[in-house]
UniProtKB/TrEMBL annotation:
Taxonomic placement: Eukaryota, Metazoa, Spiralia, Lophotrochozoa, Mollusca
Domain of life: Eukaryota
Region (Disordered): 1-22, 111-171
Protein name as it appears in the record: Uncharacterized protein
Extent of Basic and acidic residues compositional bias: 113-126
């Protein structure tokens, strides 16, 4: 029985994969990227099928990662050589570095925020002190001319009549 074009193509790809696996994988990845259809253009059935396939692939990948993490030491090479090649799981090292990096980054931002807030606090304290001194100096210069809001209410004077009352109420 003759082969269909799809079967011929599949067999050809399998032969290419056996000959040059690295080059084949690059070409296959590019072919998959070119043939990709965005999910919003797919029908609900095709979308469901794609999601199931992706779920299977991700489960297979995580099983593989777990297996690599569980393998601690592998010895390779002939018994005549005096050197041993030890294969350790690299994923744990990267994970540890990443955790330390994020920890350091978060500490750095916290310290930066803390220093910024303390600088703002010092600046506001200086402004407050400056304004208090200014008020004290004004009260020492003309204590009889300064009117408070209670004095103005008692005398029925509005702030429009007395500009000094307006200044006092602003500060």
């Amino acid at each position: 029985m003759p082969l269909s074009n799809a079967e011929r193509q599949r067999r050809y790809r399998e032969k290419q994969k056996a000959k040059k696996p690295v080059a084949y994988l690059k070409k296959e990845a590019q072919r998959k990227r070119d043939a990709y259809i965005p999910s919003h253009l797919l029908s609900p059935d095709a979308l469901k099928k794609r999601r199931e396939e992706l779920c299977k692939k991700s489960k297979r990948h995580y099983k593989k990662v777990k297996r690599v993490q569980n393998e601690t030491v592998e010895v390779a090479g002939p018994s005549t050589s005096s050197t041993l090649i030890v294969k350790l799981p690299i994923t744990n090292v990267k994970k540890g570095k990443q955790v330390r990096k994020t920890y350091r980054r978060s500490l750095r931002t916290a310290y930066r925020k803390n220093s910024e807030l303390s600088d703002q606090n010092k600046e506001l304290e200086r402004k407050n002190k400056r304004l208090q001194k200014r008020i004290e100096r004004l009260n020492k210069k003309k204590p009889s001319m300064m009117l408070t809001s209670t004095d103005a209410e008692d005398a029925d004077i509005s702030s429009m009549d007395n500009p000094k009352l307006e200044q006092k109420s602003i500060h």
